[in-house]
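Re: that backbone. Tokens:
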């Protein structure tokens, strides 16, 4: 009987502690501009009028395939931070894990302080959301749904082939921050699809802590000499084939 009471009391304590912890986690606000102004300013300085441009002198950045982003078991919880936006649309940012259902990260990526500001925008520059940790090596996809008043556009994703005209709408760059010894992925998103798109990839810019991605393999592009060699071989082959015909 006594042990049963102790067990009940212990269980209640555990539940109460868990509730308290959950309450604290929800109440805690993440903001990179306040928590690490230098890092926020670095990321924000990449948001240019055209495209997400990273100065050539920053060597610790590598362009990633945005369709390969993933959380690796044991990494820190995934945190998504709003860096800036230059969009007239009120965009919805969402994510999915391992191709599962989409969950909203930011329901309205707009702010009174951003490049294309909205007075009633809900975000402050640098605001963050924790997506938490996942089970094992997890593929993470991000999506953007443009909205304007009562209009909702087609959702754009990290896989170019699923987008209108098969065009990429996300660009991703890795960044190693020596100050905190952490890997980041900075993502720039273009929200206008089709031929009217200005392809500046600054309509929504976010920085994500706790994920990695596969570099875009630039070494696969053949050297001019190799290319000439291949053309030469192809030409020889064609001549041989014509002779045989
Ligand atoms: Ca805006
Ligand atoms: Ca744009």
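Recovered sequence:
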């Amino acid at each position: 009987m006594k042990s049963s009471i102790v067990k009940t009391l212990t269980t209640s304590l555990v539940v109460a502690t868990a509730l308290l912890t959950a309450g604290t986690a929800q109440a805690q606000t993440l903001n990179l501009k306040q928590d690490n102004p230098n890092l926020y300013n670095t990321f924000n300085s990449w948001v240019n009028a055209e495209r997400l441009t990273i100065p050539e002198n920053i060597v610790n950045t590598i362009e990633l395939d945005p369709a390969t982003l993933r959380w690796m078991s044991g990494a820190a919880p995934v945190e998504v931070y709003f860096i800036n936006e230059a969009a007239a649309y009120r965009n919805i940012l969402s994510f999915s894990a391992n191709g599962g259902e989409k969950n909203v990260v930011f329901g309205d990526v707009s702010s009174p302080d951003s490049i294309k500001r909205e007075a009633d925008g809900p975000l402050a520059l640098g605001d963050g959301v924790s997506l938490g940790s996942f089970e094992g090596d997890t593929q993470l996809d991000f999506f953007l749904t443009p909205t304007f008043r009562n209009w909702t556009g087609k959702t754009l994703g990290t896989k170019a082939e699923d987008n209108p005209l098969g065009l990429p709408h996300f660009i991703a760059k890795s960044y190693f921050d020596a100050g905190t010894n952490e890997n980041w992925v900075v993502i720039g998103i273009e929200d206008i699809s089709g031929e009217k798109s200005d392809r500046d990839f600054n309509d929504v810019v976010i920085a994500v802590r706790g994920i990695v991605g596969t570099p875009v393999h630039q070494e696969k592009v053949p050297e001019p000499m190799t290319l000439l060699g291949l053309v030469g071989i192809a030409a020889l082959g064609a001549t041989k084939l014509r002779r045989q015909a």
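The longest strand covers residues 138-145. The two ends are 97 Å apart (CA to CA).
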